[in-house]
Amino acid sequence: DAGVIQSPRHEVTEMGQEVTLRCKPISGHNSLFWYRQTMMRGLELLIYFNNNVPIDDSGMPEDRFSAKMPNASFSTLKIQPSEPRDSAVYFCAGKASLNTEAFFGQGTRLTVV
Amino acid sequence: DQQVKQNSPSLSVQEGRISILNCDYTNSMFDYFLWYKKYPAEGPTFLISISSIKDKNEDGRFTVFLNKSAKHLSLHIVPSQPGDSAVYFCAASRPNSGYALNFGKGTSLLVTP
Q: Which residues of A touch B102 (CB under 8 A)?
C-alpha cells in the first residue's frame, strides 16, 4: 500500500481564490481526519469522518471551510474564499478502527498571498 | 484550549544517553495515548502507544510510561541515536470523539554525536 496520499504537496494561491486539498486514505481505513498545523496552534483537528459520514466538524474554523468524503477512498477539504491566515500545512490521516494509531499523509503546504 | 501539553519545546541529548520527553494532559476521559515522530516536510509517523489500563509499554529502544493520577506520560529513548533527531508529538484520545487525536505542540529533539 502506498500509504495516505495527499495532493497537491504545495499550493500557492492568491487571497480570495478557492483551494481544494485532496486525500486518498489507506484502503480499509474507515475513519478519516483532517488536521491543520501552524506554529501558533500546533496540530489541530478540523473534522473527522467515520464510514464516510462527517461526525465532528467543530474544529472547522469558519464557514469558508468545507470537507467531503464522497466514498471510502477519497476526501476533499475546500477553502472558499482563501485568506492569508489560512496558510498552514494540512494533513489527512486515517485509522482502521477506533482504538488504534492514525496514519498520516505527507501534508499539503498551503500559502495564501 | 490545549488539553495536551508538551512544556519543553526542545531537548538536546548526547548520542548513547537517554532522552526523556514529557507530556501532560487535562482531560480525564482520555484513555489512549500515542507518540508520533515527525521529520521536516513529512507527515507524523506513529511511534508507540499505551492504553490507560497499562502504566508502561516498551518497543525496542522506546518506552512510554503513563501516570494516570498525575495525568502525565513520558517517552524514554535509550540509547539515543542521531537519527532520532526529530519533533516528537504526544497525542491523546477518548471514546466519545471517535478516538480523534488531540496533539501537544511537540518537542524538538536533537541528538548530538
A: 45
Alpha carbon of B18 to those of B15, B56, B88, B91, B111: distances in Å?
8, 17, 15, 21, 10
Report which of A86, A76, A78, A79 is spatially closest to residue A23, judged by C-alpha positions.
A76
Residue B55 pLDDT greater than 90, yes or no? yes
Tens digits of pLDDT across chain A (113 residues): 679 999 999 999 999 999 999 999 999 998 999 999 998 889 999 999 999 999 999 999 889 999 999 999 999 999 999 999 999 999 999 998 777 899 999 999 999 99
Which helix (H) or strand (E) segment holds residue B12: the answer is: strand B10-14
DSSP string, B27-86: -TT--EEEEEEE-TTS--EEEEEEETT-SEEEETTEEEEEETTTTEEEEEESS--GGG-E
Give the model's pLDDT for residue A2.
Answer: 77
Look-up of cell digits 504526544: B90
DSSP assignment of A48-97 equals: EEETTEEEE-TT--STTEEEEEEETTEEEEEESS--GGG-EEEEEEEESS
CB environment B28-44: b (16+ within 10 A), e (fewer): eebbbbbbbbbeeeebb
Q: Which residue out of A30, A104, A109, A110 would a mutagenesis test of the B interface target, given it has the greatest number of B Cβ atoms within 10 Å?
A: A104
Helix (H/G/I), strand (E/B), else coil: A7:
strand
The answer to whether A66 faces chain B, any CB pair under 8 Å, is: no
